[in-house]
Amino acid sequence: MTRVSAANGGAGRATLPVMAASENGRAGMVAAMALLRKGGRALDAVELACRVTEDDPNDHSVGYSGLPNVMGEVELDASIMDGRDLRSGAVAAVRGYGNPITLARQVMEQLPHVLLAGRGAERFAAANGHAPQDQRTEEALQRWRERFAHYGLDSEGDADLRELTNTLTRPLNLSEAPLSAGSERRFGTVNFLALDQYGDLASAVSTSGLGWKYPSRVGDSPIIGAGNYCDNRYGATACTGMGELALRVSTARSLVLYMKLGMSLHEAGLEALRDLAYLGGVPGRYMNMVAMTPQGECAGFTTVPGKKYLYMNEEMEEPALAERVRLEESA
Ligand code: ASP
User: Fold this and answer.
1) Is 189 in the pocket of ligand 1 (CB under 6 A)?
2) Which end of the chain is more exposed for a tag (fewer CB within 10 A), N or C?
């Protein structure tokens, strides 16, 4: 656990800005911290950070160039939450538009709703002046084709999508013929949590979801309470990994609720890991969380070894990587 004390802000400041993110959030975090240093708001910071990641063609887990679904279509999910009043916005299974985090924020600010999915979300994007843009890149499609080829399947064929999804998304058996580096990756999402100098928290999550998923499958990322939760009074949490796990035990809300009930950040994270452990471990299907207290203390948690997360406060020049806590190591 990383203690980034926020209690030592300068004169006239409530807190020292702090951010936490998943490992792929480095560039977004640097851009967002520059905003926070200038007195920017946590909500603007997490949106900006997500947009930077969404626009990165080298990140195949989020936004433009995300891994496609089983049919070779990119479908994006995102959510944002304001810790001041628990207002939230989300979009799911959006095709043909980029920056889903901005759409999510616009849902929150313009509609009496929290979540828009599919065609309605795309219509809303057009109404808000978002330019349609194919989110597929040749590199992401190449991974999709490789995955089919790995199992001797035809990506253009008319095989039953249920069977294809079950085959393509199952964790790889390492004794099977090797795939090129990166092709075995099916997971990936970006998480950002921010505390600003006014003492406000915000959280944002953006993803292209599980690679090779069934069309319109929605994971935890756009579901408030599962993949994202933020409350100024008790803290914030966001998740990456096999979204079905966080959906089943409401991971993000649970971790924050455990803090509300009096647990420390560390204890709350372990309790959320125990919830996940009850689902039974399937190799290759894991869950990770980043979490932050209202004072800016950060931690990362995971069900598998070797996972890290990023944190940064305004006094640091660069984001720093820290180990995520596992249940087994804390026993
Ligand atoms: N949690 C995301 C989902 O299930 C994917 C991921 O984080 O890898 O859609």
Assistant:
1) yes
2) C
